[in-house]
Amino acid sequence: MKNWAGNITWNPSEIAYPSSEEEIQQLVLKAANDRKKIRVIGTGHSFTALCQTENILVNLDKYQGLIAVDKEKVQATVKGGTKLNYLGDLLFKEGMAMENLGDIDVQSIAGTISTGTHGTGTKFGTISTQVIAIRFINGKGEIISCSETENPELFKAAQVSMGALGIITRITLQCIPLYKLSVEMKAAHLNDTLSNLQSHLDNNRNFEFFWLPYTNKVATKTSNIEATSEVDDISFFNYWSEYVLENYLFMGIAEFAKWFPSKTQAISKLTADLISDTKKIAYSHKIYATPRLVKFQEMEYNVPADAYQDVMQEVVKTVNTGKYNVHFPIENRWVKGDDIMMSPANGRDSAYIACHVYSNKDAGPYFKALEDIFRAYNGRPHWGKMNTLTPVAIADMYPEFSTFMKHRALQDPDLLFASPYMQRLLGVGNVV
Ligand SMILES: Cc1cc2nc3c(=O)[nH]c(=O)nc-3n(C[C@H](O)[C@H](O)[C@H](O)COP(=O)(O)OP(=O)(O)OC[C@H]3O[C@@H](n4cnc5c(N)ncnc54)[C@H](O)[C@@H]3O)c2cc1C
After folding, report:
1. What structural domains and CATH numbers belong to the chain?
2. Is there a contact between 97 and 176 (Cβ–Cβ < 8 Å)?
3. Is 382 touching ligand 1 by the criterion CB < 6 Å?
4. How much distance in Å is there from the Cα of 82 to the middle of ligand 1?
5. pTM score over 0.85
6. What is the pLDDT of residues 417-427, one digit of tens each?
């Protein structure tokens, strides 16, 4: 087995493909009886070893779909293994949509919320904030339900839980009625973008930008509700920009940079010159995601929104020293604060800064240099992306860490879901 990026490999003794909640429960009971460990995999799009196990790996590909829909309340209950793109189509048929999404839509809904996956927009929390109820099978094989009103403290632990409490079987989402978005990409200058940041954030439903290292150039991306226009066919121009420019051409560039690192700065400048203005209109579930055909490694940190400008200035200064031969753009997004125990956005409106390197390049020194900056500003890593955290650091970062760990111990007292990576991350059991 390997994850999407290919940086984590493992060899489970068994892979199970249950197709019902009863089968999932039986799997857990048998594993508990046989004293074996379990990890669940969504689609393996995490860059960390969250899904790694030498024991039983549970794959929920056969456990997808809608369970119930409440059209009046615009709510939908879905199976944990449902992939986001399939979910988008299912909701569309019911006249509903998710209020926000991230860059890709191939992940499972349970994997998405378990790592605190997010999109961008100061009015929107992480995807976990769209969840209003969760049902899971805990380490004792019990079916547990929680929501804002039923076991509310446990619910706040389960909204972002990295598979530590059990296997999520059902998720109820608060959706919104169907909507169309107009998405625009534009070339701009870094200085102008940073100077006018607040107005970009206030005047657009969703705003993010990509900075091209060693240049003063950025690509801004805005999404706004489009009430009147028809949806676009994917035009040749958009196809060229998204598929060819952002992927195939970029793959060639990345390969070239690997063999000729001294040309990295020139490559980044060339990429900046290729940014073109594009616009397209589509129903929301068809427009948030862009194809990601070039494999990379990624680290992404959440920093308090009010520290963002200082953090970004340090990031730009560090990257521009030229020590790290980087040419992947740095992505900048914004997310509303929440009250979910292990959400990186817990207790604060946040900015997310993401850095990437080509899949088989050593990310170490570059990521470490930026991680030191993020940590100095109370940064918290995305749980699905690379980081060098220790349990001591996590306990410091998350005010409700001990309450989360109380629920972890209650739901999984025999550490059925605690792989060696999870034991090291959370500091439980005989740390291996
Ligand atoms: C190309 C790419 C683009 C990305 N873009 C974004 C982005 O825009 N925004 C963002 O925030 N992140 C992004 N990510 C990160 C990604 O969204 C997260 O890593 C997400 O968790 C992946 O979902 P998954 O289904 O692959 O989960 P996996 O990586 O398979 O699993 C993640 C965690 O969820 C747990 N899990 C999965 N299913 C269940 C279940 N049923 N019950 C309990 N636990 C479960 C796993 O055990 C694991 O701990 C991106 C990653 C890639 C590779």
Report:
1. 180-381 (3.40.462.10)
2. yes
3. yes
4. 12
5. yes
6. 999 999 999 99
